[in-house]
Amino acid sequence: MDATVTTQNVSGATVPVPMPMPASKVAARGVNVHYGAKHALKSVDIDIRENQVTAFIGPSGCGKSTFLRCINRMNDTIASCRVTGDLRLDGQDIYDRSVDVVQLRARVGMVFQKANPFPKSIFENVAYGPKIHGLATKRSEFEEIVEKSLRGAGLWEEVKDRLDDPGTGLSGGQQQRLCIARAIAVSPEVILMDEPCSALDPIATAHVEELIDGLKSDYTIVIVTHNMQQAARVSQRTAFFHLGTLVEEDDTAKIFTNPRDERTQGYITGRYG
Amino acid sequence: MTDMSVPAAPASRHTGPEARLRLEKRYASERRFERYGMAALSFAIAALFLLLWTILSNGATAFFQTHIRLEVHFDPATIDPDGKRDPAAFRQANWAAVARAALQEKFPEVRGRLPLRQLDALLSDGAQIELLRMVSADPGLLGQRREVWLLTSSDVDMIQKGHSARDVPEASRRVNDAQLSWLDRLAAEGRLEKRFNTRFFTAADSRQPELVGVWGGVVGSFLTLGMTLLLAFPMGVAAAIYLEEYAPKNRFTDLIEVNINNLAAVPSIVYGLLGLAVFLQFFGMPRSAPIVGGVVLALMSLPIIIIASRAALRSVPPSIREAALGIGASKMQAIFHHILPLAMPGIMTGTIIALAHALGETAPLLMIGMVAFVVDIPAGPLSPSTVLPVQIFMWADNPERGFVEKTSAAIMTLLVFLLLMNAAAIWLRKKFERRW
Ligand SMILES: Nc1ncnc2c1ncn2[C@@H]1O[C@H](COP(=O)(O)OP(=O)(O)OP(=O)(O)O)[C@@H](O)[C@H]1O
Ligand SMILES: [Mg+2]
User: Fold this and answer.
1) A116 → closest Cβ in B323, B330, B434
2) In the Cβ-directed half-sphere of A109, how many Cα atoms lie within 13 Å?
3) Residue B357's domain spans which residues?
4) Distances in Å between the alpha carbon of B382 and those of A181, B294, B363?
5) CA-closest residue to ligand 1 atom 12
6) Considering only CA atoms, which residue is closest to atom 29 of ligand 1?
7) DSSP assignment, residue B335?
8) What is the model's pTM?
9) pLDDT, tens digit (0-9, with 9 covering 90-100), for A7-34
10) Residue B262 belongs to domain with CATH number
11) Is residue B9 domain-resident?
């Protein structure tokens, strides 16, 4: 699983390393997304591997968020949005009629770009998911889940004495970690993060990155980021999107050192974006 | 400008006399705008104070009513000739005679039918009712003599309050010279006094201005508005939730939306006509009943509540909805656990404004017969009643002088209720408001 650390050199020749293929958790084949007449995502094929961090990079408006939101069907809330193609979670078609969206979103959690805690207490924020999914019934069970999730999100020490304070009263970075705690409280299998650090300072960002690194042993993580260093630091796989197409997807080290496509090369070296 | 000037110090375009002039102009226009605003505000405040002052100066006296203190002999021979001490018999007794006896004792020199009638006229019919009430409450009074404050007639009251002039020819006065001299004698003995008018807050309508009260109207308004709230709030909020969250956006829902906006602007009397045609004539519901008034006012308030609720729902940040859906809340859970609580202050403010509107509504209620003369406090939503604004309308329409102050006093009562409702709106808003 940690076979990805083989190529750490930022420049120079790359050594293609054969590694055991981790199972693919999410698989997309020919996924197209339209917003009304706008063709936002064009025939995307990708395998997102289990227990790895996959980073989506690409210039603004290229469809990263759109693809991310396909995976937990958050796009359903947009009336004009139409998704076609084959998108599977553990081999099961996400867009099949038989799929229950509520259950899907319990399995595929999401952390948004802007921290959006509920205007309720810290405790309630984390306990809400387990409550609606019926994962706990007794107060003690909730307390256990809340503590575990907050520890998982690296927030426990900071808030353990004020769990009844409003979640909106935390700092931006704390709020974002609260949102991560809220997402992992329902024990999802996949966590989607849409630019989770875009509003955070470097210290808070480092915090979250550390967290992501720790989480990957239990979860499959997809993270959208505009920060190349971040992608390089936290991810094992990187996918580069451009103008609605998935240009290439490969080991992070390879993308950042020896991309196949010149558009990727141009983007990561900062020639456009 | 050509660029051949000295390139030494590039003169800023934001300094110098020209720039100062531009700045001056900007400030001047800002000051002008401020003055307009202040002028408009002062005018509004002045108008408001004029209105309040008029109402207060007209109506303040209504809260006190002139009384005469007389020694009353509760004569068993008149009140309880059979000696059975039966409350039913008390009611049949000749209380007018008891009151007259008390007056005659005070003015033994008055003789003859006409002067006696004039003497009687000093007291209100309400005095007899008061005497009856005293004896019913305490039959032990029978046979005793007591000093009692008895209510005067409205004509006397108006003279005492200075609302009717004394110094006009006797023929154009409702109180003649003899009566005036009696009053002066009573006043000199300290037997004439303005006492607090509790009846005004406990009684319902009456033909005599000294006997009227607003309580009937208040209870009627309360029952009517309660009905309105019960119907309009859940229906309005449910409709708003459906339209905002569930309804597909198509021609049909657009049509509904346009119609709701139009309904909010329909004159209220039209709702009254609707109530008359549908509820009274078609469904045969009772006339003058708060339940019908409530339904009519609910129909009238619905569009306002729906529009306010939709605006409140729409103003909840979409990030909250995404957060809820993102961890697998169903649509209904997202709405009821997160969106609705955040929208509640706005919804409640809208509802209370709609209700305050309904509280002051008269026209539609006239149509369904709530303009009736009701002397009893309404017992329930089906009993005939009137409401405060209609009560005001009826009193204002009455030519008797004594009703003028009662009208103003009733308006004050209505204003107090409106203030209370608005205070409640602010309080609820504060209580339920959350930051996000
Ligand atoms: N709700 C929507 N309705 C219509 N078009 C949309 C909607 N959301 C996104 N789009 C369009 O789809 C395209 C892809 O948008 P998307 O949000 O996925 O970009 P992104 O890669 O996440 O960009 P960024 O890095 O700026 O977040 C854009 O051209 C955008 O204008
Ligand atoms: Mg995005």
Assistant:
1) B323
2) 23
3) 215-432
4) 56, 11, 20
5) A40
6) A61
7) I
8) 0.82
9) 444 444 444 444 445 578 899 999 999 9
10) 1.10.3720.10
11) no
